[in-house]
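Reply to dn_fold:

You asked what the input looked like. This is it:
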Amino acid sequence: MKFSSILRYAFLGIFNAGSVYLIPLIITFESWFLLSVLIFIMFLINFTYLTDKFAALKWITPGVIFMFSFVVFPAAYNTYVSFTNWSTGHILTKTQAIDLLEARTYTPEDQRGVEFDIYIFEDDNQEYYFGADLNENEFLFGKAVSQDLIKEATFARHEPSLKNSSGEIVPPEGFKLLLGKDQINLANKLQELSLVIDTSTRAQLYKISVFGSSTGRLLSTSQRYSYDSDNDILYDNSTNATCSSDGDNFLCNGESVDPGWRVFVGSENYKKLFSNQRIRGPLELVTKWTFQFATLTVFLAFSVGLLLSITLNKEKLKFKRLYRALYILPYAIPAFVSVLVWKGLLNPDYGVINTWLDPFYTFFDIEPIKWLKTKESARAAVLLVNTWLGFPYMFLITTGALQSIPKELTEAAKVDGATGVQSFWRITFPLLMVSISPLLIGSFAFNFNNFTLIFLLSGGGPPVIGSEVAVGWTDILISFSYRLAISGGRGNLFGLASSVTIIIFGIVLLISALSFRYTKRLERIYGNI
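and this is what came back:
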């Protein structure tokens, strides 16, 4: 058997073993869609690599799987979430929410605040037993167990013999009564133990007394809520109230009972974005700035990169390779590191930028720029840093594109009397756009969703004063979506945030389609040159 075949079978064995291991877990969580996807991928991979009939699939399958996993599935899942009420208090399914409610317990009114003397015993195996002196006629004794063993524990039994006629405690044979000092040393451990009295009640150590007996209290495990599946009604056993379903919550006495459950709400989230003025106003502001930010970033980075590539595209220029290496240096540094460094440089009080500009401030007698503190300075800082991060990429692609343009064209134009500026705008630039337009479209799409820069540099701030929704002057749509989903201060609005991401997807898709159409037009005009 060939070594390549051994590797193939080894990979398939590991993959299938991992998939078979995941299937029961997925079934446990009732994720039927994920289960069907996993089974389909298992079938596709095994069918592709165990047969030699479809050789092309061996190369296509990995790409298709990764595209589905990281492009199609997230887009489809976000679309699904955007049509639901998925948010804080509405994350679970109805079945899960009911199970959680039925697991809740309460203490009946007649057991609240009940205190009694409790005694701690230790046997020869260093296991602990509680003696609960509930009243004159009831002294319960039994093994104290931890929380996870309560359901399996033996009920406490009545042992009047442990208390003599004078009221003194007489430990059973083989047991030792722990005094207050001993109980204090074991306090943390003892307070986690319980004496199980019956199916719904247990006794716990409440207060330790150094002199005399310690104090215990009763805790009830009575089920608070009961669900009637036939009538879709929840009963509150603590108040004897009947709770009706309100679509995504149960209502008890007019108040919602948390948690609720997620349901399909149709286009409700999209209507809220455009009809609710609390959200619509900030959304319009953020959308306008997002377009400005993406467009200006691409324009500035492209302009700087193109200017540098034209400058260095001289045959007789000395140290050309050194200059090019220096200009692509920002591209070699991880973006999140560069952004944090720039954040320190732009510190309005201690940053190097304001230190360098201090003579300028003094000469013109103006206040230092409060970088990242005001609307204008924050937006300028964001554009400055993103231009610095983006121009090396533009420099690389324009350098390669310029070198691919035949020199005969510019030389012929020069012979015909064209100036350098005319030659650039009439010949060089259109041919340049044919090759780099798709890359500019990709750069626009990337910056349209450049969450890392906004989050690390300005955090979306400074905040818009007076807005009822958390939003900042440098927030773009993706960071605004993040605020809605996670950090808005009003719970997690995943459904609403997902609707914003779908709008972003639609905008980028539309702009990309129009831009590619324009690119094809350029190719038809200049493609044969």
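The mean pLDDT is 86.
Hope that clears it up.
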